[in-house]
Amino acid sequence: MKLALALSALVIALLMASLSLGYAPLSLSAVLGGVLGAGDPLHVMVMQEIRLPRTALAALVGAALGLSGAAMQGYLRNPLAEPGLIGVSGSAALGAVIALQTGLSAAFALALPLMALLFALGAVALILLLAGPRGGSLTLILAGIAVSALAGALTSLALNLSSNPYATFEIVFWMMGSVADRSLTHLALAAPLVALGGAVLLTLGRGLDALTLGEDGAQALGVSMTALRLKLLFGTAAAVGAATAVAGAVGFVGLVVPHLLRPLCGARPSRLLWASALGGAAMLLTADIAVRLILPERDLKLGVVMALIGAPLFLHLIYKTRRGG
Amino acid sequence: MRASKLLPLAAALSFGIGAAAADGAGPARVVSLNVCTDQLALLLAAPGQLVSVSPLGHDPRSSAMAEEAAALPANAAHAEEIVLLEPDLVLAGTYTARAAVDMLERLGYRVARFAPANSIEDARQNILQMGALLGREPEAETLLARFDNRLAALRDVPETRPLVAYYLPFNETAGVQSLTGEILDTAGMANISEARGLPYGGRLPLEELVLAQPDLILVGQPYDSPSQATALLQHPVLRATGALREIPDGQNWICGTPFLLDAVEAMRELRRDWEAAQ
Fold first, then answer.
1. Is residue A183 within 8 angstroms of chain B, CB to CB?
2. In a domain, B156, yes or no
3. Record: contact B206-A50, CB cut-off 8 A
C-alpha cells in the first residue's frame, strides 16, 4: 500500500513537472488554467494541444512498457525479457510504418495501432515459441537480436521506399522513440488499446505468482497455462503495439523499471505488475523531462536517455546471469 | 581535355545537329543535373540544346516547368550515364551529386556549378550566368528585363505588415536572409524570424510559434506519403490558431528563377486578403 502511494505521488509530481516544462515559460496558474480550459485562450491552446498530449503519452507509453516488461519477465522467469530487447517494439514499429506508408492508416485511422499490434503479436509469439516455457537467456537474447535486426532493416527499407523525401529521417524516431509534438489524435489512437492490453496483463497477477512455484506447481493450483500464455501474448502485443505506433520503439523501460522495483515488491510478480506500470510512467516522464532539459534546442530521442540508463544495467544483468549459471 | 574536344564532333556525326550548334555560339548538348538549372536552361536554351534534365525536373511539386521538361529524358546524375549522353556542358548545383560531378570534371567535361539562390539578386545573376554559358546572352537580357519590370510592379510597401511564419518540417522556420525571406519581404510581410533573432532561419518549437501569435502561418502542401517531419505541419494546434495557410505553389519558391515572382504575387494577394479581413 505504501509503495502504491509513493509511486502514485511520484507520477503525479512528474506529470505536473512535465506540464510546467516547455520551450516557452508559462506561469503555474497559466499551466493549471490552461489544462483545465480556463484563462487565456492562447494558453489553453498551448497546454491542451501541445503539452498535455506529450505528457499524457509519455506516461501512457512508459506504463505500457513497464507493465509488459514485468509480465514477460514473470512468465519467462527471466529478468532479461524486455519488449525492446527481444524485438517486440521493433516489430510493432515496423507494423506502424507499413500502415503509414501503404496509406492504410490514412484510409482507416485505427489501422495504425492495429497493424503495430499485429506485428508485435507475431514477434511475441515467435519469441515464446523459440524461448520455450522456461525462457532460456541465450535463446531469448539471440532470438531478440534476430527479430530486432530484421524489423529494423525492414522499417528502414519501407521508409527509404517512400516518395516523401523526409521519411528517411524518421528511421531514428522509430528506433529511438519520441513524444515531441504528438497531438491529441495520437493519444486517442493509442490510449484505448494500451488500456485494454494493460487491463489484460494486470489480470495475470495470480497466475504469475503461482508460476513462481514452477509450471507443475501452477497447474496444481488450478492455473491454466494456455490461458495465461494467450493473455500474455495479447496483452503485451496490444500495450506495446499501440504505444510504439505513436511514440516509436523506446527501449530498456521494461528492463530497468521491474529491476528497480522487484526488491520493493517482495519478489511477488502480481505486485510487480502494477508497480512497474506506475514506475514505467515515472521513468518515461523523467526521461522526457531530461530530453527537454539537456538539449532543448535539439530534438533528442527518448531512446537515447533510456539506453544511457538501461544499457549498463543490461550488461550488469548479463554478468549476473552468467555467474548464476 | 581531348575527350571534350572530340565530343561535339561525335555528336554532330551521330545525331545531326541542333540549332544552337549551327550558330556556333553555345554548347550543342547540355545536360542539367539540378532542378533549378533545369528550369533556367529550359527558359533560355535554344530548341534541342538541352538534352536531359534531373528527375526532380519532372516533378511538378519541385519544378515550375515540369510540363516543358516532360519531353526530355531524366538522368539520375550518375557519372556513367552522363558520359553516355555526350554532353558539351554539364549544369549542376553546388551540392548536386558531388562525386559524379567531380569525376566528370576529371574526365575533362565542362561543368558549370550554380550556387543555390539565397536572394532575388542571386536569381538575377543566375539568369545572366546561364545566358552566358548557353551562348544565349540576348535572350537572358530580355528575360532579366522582364523580370525586373515585374518585380518593380509587384513590390509593395504597406502600412501594416502582417507577422508571418513560414513553417518548415523539423520545426524550422525560414530566415530573413533567404530566398523565402525575400519573397515574403517583397510581398509586404514581416518575417517572424527577424523578431526572434534568427536571420538565417532556425528551430522554432511549435509551442513558441503558437505563443508568438503570428498573423499568418505558411506551410507547404502535404506529400502523398506521410512522414513525421511533414506531419508536424498538420498538427491540430496550427489549425486551431486560425492563422494557418497552405502554400499551393511550392515549386515557385525553391529556385532562383523568374517563377519566384509568381510566389511574390500569390503572397501579395494573401496579404491583401488578410488586410481586408482585419
1. yes
2. no
3. yes
Is B211–A166 a contact, with Cβ atoms under 8 angstroms apart? no
> Is residue B134, in this structure, part of any structural domain at all?
yes
Q: Do B240 and A170 touch (CB under 8 A)?
A: no
Contact A24, A51 (CB under 8 A): no
Residue of chain A whose Cα is closest to the Cα of B202 = A297
Cross-chain residue pair B211–A184, CB shorter than 8 Å? no
- B230 in reach of chain A (CB within 8 A): yes
**Per-residue pLDDT tens for A149-188?**
999 999 999 999 988 888 888 898 999 999 998 999 999 9
The CA distance from B228 to the nearest CA of chain A, in Å, is 7
Q: Which residue of A has its CA nearest to B229?
A: A166
Cα gap B256→A280, rounded to integer Å: 52
Give me the interface pTM, i.e. the ipTM. Answer: 0.78
Which chain B residue's Cα is nearest to A179?
Answer: B228
Write B11-19 long-range contacts (CB < 8 A, 24+).
Answer: B11/B86, B11/B88, B18/B46, B18/B47, B18/B48, B18/B49, B19/B46, B19/B47, B19/B48, B19/B49
Return all residues near B65 (Cβ < 8 A) that are at least 6 apart. B38, B39, B42, B43, B57, B259
pLDDT one-digit tens code per residue, B99-154: 999 999 999 999 999 999 999 999 999 999 999 999 999 999 999 999 999 999 99
| Domains by residue range for chain A, with CATH | 58-324 (1.10.3470.10)
Residue B30's nearest CA partner among B120, B90, B75 is B90
Per-residue pLDDT, averaged over B173-190, amounts to 94
Range of the domain at B46: 2-151
Flag if B229 and A183 touch (Cβ within 8 Å): no
Does residue B157 sit within a domain? no
Q: What is the DSSP letter of B166?
A: E
Residue A229 has pLDDT above 80, yes or no: yes
Q: Give residue A187's pLDDT.
A: 96
Is residue A1 pLDDT above 90, yes or no?
no
Residue A57 pLDDT greater than 50, yes or no: yes
List Cβ neighbours of A271 (8 Å cut-off, separation of 6 or more): A3, A205, A265
The answer to whether A100 contacts chain B (CB < 8 Å) is yes
Question: Residue B56's pLDDT is what?
Answer: 93
Residue A167 to residue B170, Cβ atoms within 8 A: no
Overall number of domains in chain B: 2
Mean pLDDT throughout A22-39?
88
CA A53 – CA A185 distance, rounded (Å): 9
Nearest CA in chain B to A160: B227
For B:113-142, CB contacts with A below 8 A are none
Chain A residues with CB inside 8 Å of B226's CB?
Answer: 100-101, 105-106, 164, 167
Q: How confident is the model over B243-258, as pLDDT tens digits?
A: 999 999 999 999 999 9
